[in-house]
């Protein structure tokens, strides 16, 4: 097949497989791998030149490492230093050592066992981050720890890729003088890259940006990445190391975000091609010929990694549930293992059969991860049904003037303002995870369900003057409002509503003081937009105030018919017409001119 035909086949496979696998919750990476397996020599045999495609697609890994380098600002690394270098370093070291020692005990050479151990200790950054984002767990304790571990793994790949050529068995042992010369040459090139990135590349980008030729800026970005990568290859180092260094050197530049946006599409397509090529190279015949060996290795690696992650999580202060979630998130192999094993085979460090076996193990472990997470969640839910629940905290606040129910973003800001005026308050939240998290930052908060009458009595709701209802979940918010209204009618409720429908439900109960979650902030931005378009600040604020007053009237009118969808839609259309009429006669005076001049 021609190059053009191959490209059409790859694009077609990606367009079909990736959306399908994302739809069923298995992720894009697995979609690429399965598509490659179907296209390659072990599938339909549509594509056979796997090695050539694999070498070309490694450009995707090069671009990925450049983008990782762009993200590694020193300030960000310092904030994440414990999760990255502490937990992440321990995970790679312990897991890699255990797997490597096992491999050595089974008869592998020391260098081969070490590469296999470190490669299998890595997890899939793309896979895990996607799953955590879909489950809304990126800001959880185990989510942040998982991110730190993945970041360290990405960093650990860099020196590994640089060292692999030095372990090569292809050319014999180099002479001492030759080794010294090669080392000096490598150091010189590294210093040249650092100096060029600081004193040459930025002025070049500045000059190109001044021409406003966006396509040339993109070409220059690609040239910097590929040029640095090729320079590293000339001195016996890896392309990936060069791309990573180029990214780090530009991480603090004013062009970081534009470079990231320009490179991202190329990286995405080439990484997809890389995964397809890996899928094509996966030796499916091994699974058919030795299914018990493959399955045993997959389950063994995943169980070992999960056990290490759980122990390390507990050792670094994670609650049992958080450590368990961390172990379930990262037991699979990662995309960089494909790179390491492929390069190790090319350098003669691993034989082809072992490489094929490890690639199959990593691929199947990635395929099993969503199933493992789903099974783990099901087991935990079943266990929790029969397990005793954590008891609510005993409340020792005797005279709170304010009770805050819900200690998310909204409730925390209210509490901070009250604290500045030394106004006593009691804060409650029904999420044990949230309570444990905010307590680490010195906040005083109680674990408890504010819809429970006994808890409200313990919180002395009968003595408080104001009840701030800041619960995120709509059903829990409405239930809490009902209990407070029924049993503590003298306390005033100030509520946060997520949207109009939530507001209507609270108004049904009798809550009259409420704010929709993003209403006021949206109005503030709208006012600034009007000012940015040239409207005077006084006119912009008057426009926003008129809109706010009209919208609140519409909210009250809509409440009367919100249970009748037909009438509610009609009321919304009528309100839109009224709003147009309200501003129809207004004229916006251009900046710097008075009203009379504008009228003329």
Largest sheet: 6 strands, parallel
Number of strands: 6
Indicate the percent of residues in helices: over 70%
How confident overall, as mean pLDDT?
78
Shape: globular
Alpha-beta content class:
mainly alpha
End-to-end Cα distance, whole Å, is 72 Å
Going across the biggest sheet, name each strand in turn: 3-2-1-4-5-6
As residue ranges, the low-confidence spans are 171-176, 587-600
% residues in beta strands: under 5%
- Rg of Cα set: 30 Å
Tally of DSSP helical segments? 26
In a nutshell, what does this entry contain?
Pfam families: Na_H_Exchanger, TrkA_N. The protein has 600 residues and is mainly alpha-helical. It contains 26 helices and 6 strands.
Describe this structure in words.
This protein is mainly α. The protein contains 26 helices and six strands. The protein has helices spanning 3-23, 28-39, 50-71, 74-79, 81-105, 110-121, 125-134, 141-163, 176-210, 214-234, 239-249, 256-281, 284-289, 291-315, 320-329, 335-346, 352-386, 409-420, 432-439, 453-458, 474-487, 500-509, 519-532, 537-561, 565-583, 595-599, and strands at residues 402-405, 425-429, 446-447, 466-469, 492-497, 513-516. Helix 5 crosses helix 8 (141-163) and helix 10 (214-234) crosses helix 11. Mean pLDDT is 78; it is low at 171-176 and 587-600.
